[in-house]
Amino acid sequence: MKSEIINVSFNNKLSDLSYPIFVGTDLLSNCTIILNEFIQNRKIILIHDNVFSLKKGKNKNFFAFVNSIKKFTTSVNLIGISGGDKTKHINQLNLILEKSLSFEIDRDSIIIAFGGGVIGDIAGFAASILLRGINYIQIPTTLLSQVDSSVGGKTGINSSRGKNLIGSFHQPLAVIADINMLKSLPKREFVAGLVEVIKYGLIKDSNFFDYIDTHYKEILDYEEEKLKKIICKSCKIKSEIIKNDEKESGQRALLNLGHTFGHAIESFGKYNGKIIHGEAVSIGICLAFKLSKKMNFCSQDEVEKVVSLFKKLTLPTSLEDIKSISITTLKMLEKFKFDKKNKNNQLTFILNKKIGESFIKKNMDVNILTNFLNDEI
User: Fold this and answer.
1) Which is catalytic among the residues 233, 256, 279, 352?
2) Was domain 4-184 assigned CATH 3.30.1360.20?
3) What is the reported pTM?
4) 256 catalytic, yes or no?
5) Contact 29/61 with Cβ under 8 angstroms?
6) Where in the chain is the domain with CATH 1.20.1090.10?
7) How far apart are CA 327 and CA 330, in angstroms?
8) 361 is an active site residue
9) How many Å apart are CA 179 and CA 29, to the nearest integer?
């Protein structure tokens, strides 16, 4: 299967921030042309999920990729870290920074992030502040990271106050999404990643939502052409949304559909594996549609179609599905105060008029939210 190239660009008169996303199979073992353009004779810091170096027999793609790099440069320095969300911490960031500096890097050095969204977020953040900014390449290995976190330049770590509250916008040189990597994912991680794919259909393209609803069984069976289609389509939708809004001052906020609820739910789970990002966002999207219905923005039929698809994928759709996590209305409202979309102490939510048409609702009425949460919790 041939790879497809999607170009990400921003309407920024001050600089050219465009870069390619390569999507296909066997890209990591056949990436000579891709790598030659970016890393020739440069010092490389490869920040990767520990799982790839600990299980050599199951991660041939990783070692094939490392060997590919060595053909272009004599300096390849590996930093292995955990892929769990607790890794996105200031202490881990400091370890990465100090270790990278110990390699005597310069401003021509390049960080390569090899792993899921957590690896990409913290490695990209490190790249944005090392020597006041060096280049990096994203090699996302999970479905979630291939369709979402690796695209658009958002980098960062978590705070005790909430998720992704410390970070920067730092665009990569390139993104290389190898579909083969998805087959090594735990099924739970793969299915959770589909939530971000469905999100794009809910935000902007009802036909894409219908396509996923029709073909979800083949997608769950890892049919390569369908995986390539949904990854490319997701990246194209995201690229279209962010091109005029690199730093989320406007329409880019639509990409946070379900995430205000989702990030709060994740924090209640304390990132201990009881609930993972995609599962929390699945509940968050369902809550956003239910809230939209409560406020008379969308119909009950639209809510039921969304909930139905997530249930087909065996994903949680309500707070009732996660009774092991303690959540109260008061604590949820407190979490909302630290959401990055808020302005002038006013709560902002992403709601829907229908499937394929999200909008930004500013200055949310706390009383409406309180009553809604009381009904849901």
Assistant:
1) 256
2) no
3) 0.94
4) yes
5) yes
6) 187-376
7) 9
8) no
9) 12
